[in-house]
Every structure is written in C-alpha cells, then in structure tokens.
Amino acid sequence: MTAETAEAPAIPPTMTAVIAETAGGPEVLKSVQRDVPHPAAGEVLIAVACAGINRPDIMQRSGALPAPAEVSDVLGLEVAGRVIACGDAVDPGLVGTEVMALVKAGGYATHVCARADHCLPIPASLSLIEAAALPEGLFTIWHNLFDRGRLNAGDVLLIEGGASGIGTLALQLAQAAGASVIATAGGTEKCARLTAMGVCAIDYREPGGDDRILALTEGRGVDVVLDILGGEAVTRHLAVMAPGGRHVGLSFMTGVIAGVDLGLLMRKGLWLTSSTLRPKSDAEKAGIARDISQHLLPHLGGTGVRPVIATVLPLAQAAEAHRLLESGRNFGKIVLQMPEEA
Hints:
By secondary structure, the chain is of the alpha/beta class. Helix content is 27%, strand content 26%.
C-alpha cells in the first residue's frame, strides 16, 4: 500500500507481546511469548515496527472496559509495520508493503493480524513511528468529528483535551478542513504549544473559560464540541454552543451521567451524539477506512498534517507508557517501538 516494497522476511514461530495479567495498574502489564498468528481470510500478517498507546488500552488494563471475548488478550489497537503474509482473498502483492492499521487487539506485539480493508497506506514522508500514532485517531476523528459531527469549513470547533494525541491530530485536520479551533489544556506550557499550532488555547485550570469561549465567538458559541469529559461538562458545553451545534462525546473521564437541559437543547436545536469504534462491524470499519483514504490522507505528510509525538518507548516499557498517559503530562501521542530483532 506504499511504493516501498521489499522481500518479506521469514515468519518466526513465536513473538513477544504485552498483556495485562489481571485488572489493575500499569504494574500488571507483562511481556510474554506467544505463537505468531496466521492471517485468516481477508487478513494480513504485519511485522510490527511501532504501536500507538490509547486510552481504551488503559481502560482495558484497569478492567473498566474489558476487551470483547473473541479477541486476543494482547493489548493495542493501532500499529504500523510491514505486511509479511496474506490470508485468502487478499492480494498477495501486499506482501512487503508498509501499512498502518486499526486492529481489534494485539498491537503491543512484534506481529499482529489485521483485516486488509482496515489497513491504510502510509503518507509520503511520514515515519513508521508517526504512522503508528495515526490509525485510531483517524478512524475516531473521521467517524465522530466529520461524519457524526458534520464539521464544515467556517465552523468553530471546541476540543476538550487539545494536548492529547487525538486532540493534536483533530485540531490539525479541522484546520485543514477550514474550521477554526478552540482547545482546552492544563497549564501554560501546553496552552502555549497549542497556540503555536494556530488555535485559541484555554487553560481549564483557570476560571472563566466558558466566558472566554463566548467572547472568542462574539457571543454566538461553537458549532461542534469534541468532548472527552462527559459528566457535568456536557451541561457547560451546551451553554456555549451555537444554534444547531453538534456535541460529540468521545469518552467520559468525569462521569457517564450528565444533567441535560432539554429546553435549551430544543431552543438551540442542538445535537448530542457519541460513538466508539470497537463494537462496530468489520464492514463499518472498512467503510470508514475508505472515507479516510479519500478525505483525510491527502492532508497528511509533507508540510501538511503530522501527528505530534510526545515520546517513543520500547515495548518492554509499556507500563511506563501507560503511567505517562494516565498522568496527563504528555503533549501528543505516546508510541511503543518493537525490538529491532523482531
């Protein structure tokens, strides 16, 4: 799926992977040896170079959001690497190509199977490290922000958690689509970095954030909210949304219950929506992948949109990667790199 191809290496019988031995903190993560999986019909086997760290990984490890029963217990939802084998009904010409892929599980490993139609070509000039930071974000952003949230040129977008991996990617893609962005973050340093990326940054630790949002929009409010907080933050968001605004919930870090003023919702004609990728069918995800290829990938690489990488850690330090993400100290995406001998 890229111009770069090479002879596929021999497939080893075993691989290194990271699992959670039990529900708990980062200390429950453990490196294990597993058999290398065989690609089923419609799948490819990828020799993984790098894997992205995501909040659903944290939730799975802690026991808050267990993985579906039918998937591997190896953590990880996104990877970049080289295709080394193809299952039935997959073009064998993919062997040797470098791809980035959304996977159901198994990304924290030196090898993983992915559906061929959930793989994406790596845009020119992006490294494998950068590519590994993209799939989960691209699928989430396209489906939630552009499809469900109907973000358009000229809209004003509010991103809660703009310094996160998905936040820094979403703000760039929104700007590429012609939208203006207001983003929240904790602390002056993160806000300064967001400002340097061309957005209006608001320190959520300081009072008066909602008033500033209204001031920045001359009292009209924002057209779309990309929310990771949930809980009572939803009530605040509705108050600073423009008529016809769309509120998109990605996660619920401050609670799953929100008190909603239905009268305000009706008067403004607001939309509340939320979605998550993991329960979606293979066909739905394949459709999202096609939309990403058409609408988002042309903006990536070169002087365009690039993922912001907070840090790269070896697979053996997966627990430290989880600690860093949970601490909130990162600006951008955390990536795991596989051992070179894999």
